[in-house]
Amino acid sequence: MDSSVVDNDLFNYALMRPLFSRDEPNALRIVSGYATYAMASRHLLASTAAGKRLSVDLIYGMAGADGVRKENHLGFVSLSGKREFAYNGTFSCSYVRKPLAVHSKVYIWCKGKQPVRAFIGSANYSENGFRVKGRIETLTECDPQTALDFFRKIKAESVMCTKVKQETDFASKPKKFDDGKLSPIISVEMDTDSPYKGCLKVRVPLLNTKGTLGAGSGLNWGVYADGSPRLANKGNPKSARDRNEAYIRIPKEIAQTGFFPPFNELAKKREEQIRFTVATDDGCVFSCVRTSGEYGKEIATPQDNAELGRYFRKRLGLPDGAYIDVATMKKYGRLDVVFYKTDDETYVMDFSRPKHK
Predict the structure, then answer these.
(1) What angle (nearest 5°) sits at the alpha carbon of residue 10, between those of residues 9 and 11?
(2) Do 291 and 247 touch, CB atoms closer than 8 A?
(3) d(CA 33, CA 167)
(4) Which of 89, 177, 312, 335 could form a disulfide with 54 if both were Cys (CB 3.0 to 4.6 A apart)?
């Protein structure tokens, strides 16, 4: 067992490389003070892309003390049932009940039921804990059996996320942000009736600078105005894209405010970008990244480019793959979406119809 304290590349060190060790572990037991759907989805997709089957059993240690954000709860439940996307393995999540508060971060790799390797340290199972630059977290190896015994002890004090009502059992208040350095574009939700009162918010237009949704771009990334699919390779009909493929444009003035997670222009793949959770006002949830250009001008779902397109078409009452035009948007009553920032890697996207008084 290596007792070195590691403070860099923790994602590969503790969450990926053990999969390829001679012990051949296939299950990861986690106790983490805080955890996010964005991290869990990234990890499961990364292990699947690497050709490995992985079963994750996560315990959210501070759930009883501080609650669980609704957006993350929806994501954990979605992962448990593989509702948003497919991956090779299983996922389960439990919340520690009140009044116990567990701030520990322990990662135990098992082959079947046998613990083979374990890590302990300061890194929560979140993008902030494992991937945000400028933030130092540490992990070191520890005794696998002792770590598994600790996991089992805490597991006995927890309840499965699929068996609770988050709004009443594990309610969480949105993070309150300092508005002292706000951009004129970013505001704070002041409506006392809003569940996001005190959260930063920004209104993102769905139309382009020409006042249209575009063809082969934006919400119509996968389809042209005549209904034909966009071709990945022009002139090759066999390269037709899914007509539902879509992304949300982020105007440069919004992208540069720091409202959304940072964009790494040096990343070679979209999957290397920091993930963040986007829940919707009607209860859906997406694992997203910023992508494209020098400043990350698009919000996309890299595990399946068509997720956002299917969502918006269903909301607009359109069939899958249909071209979305401005008239349809106006009939629905929205030409934009509003994003609320509930914490540094969790957002709510409001595309609800306007309420007429």
Answers:
(1) 95
(2) yes
(3) 20
(4) 89
DSSP-derived letter for residue 160 is: E
Q: 277-324 pLDDT, tens per residue?
A: 999 999 999 999 999 878 899 999 988 999 999 999 999 999 999 999
CA distance 250 to 278: 14
Q: Cα 261 to chain center, whole Å?
A: 11
Tokens of 66: 């501080």
- Whole-model pTM? 0.81
- The amino acid present at 147, given as its one-letter code, is A
Q: Residue 180: which residues within 8 A CB-CB, separation 6 or more?
A: none
How far are the Cα atoms of 26, 28, 43, 195, 213 from residue 55, in angstroms, in the given order?
A: 6, 6, 11, 34, 41
Whole-angstrom distance, CA of residue 147 vs CA of residue 233: 51
Tell me how far apart the alpha carbons of residues 219 and 245 are, in angstroms, rounded to a whole number: 7
Q: Which tens digit of pLDDT belongs to each residue from 193-213?
A: 888 888 899 999 999 989 999
Q: What is the DSSP string of 230-267?
A: PBSSTT-GGGBPPTT---EE--HHHHTTT-SPP--TT-
Measure Cα distances from 331 to 235, 282, 311, 334, 353 in Å.
Answer: 35, 19, 17, 8, 10
Residue 354: exposed, middle, or buried by beta-carbon count in 10 A (0-12, 13-18, 19+)? exposed
User: Distance (Å, rounded) from C-alpha 298 to C-alpha 184?
Assistant: 21
* List of domains in the chain: 10-167 (3.30.870.10), 187-350 (no CATH)
Tokens of 197: 């009162």
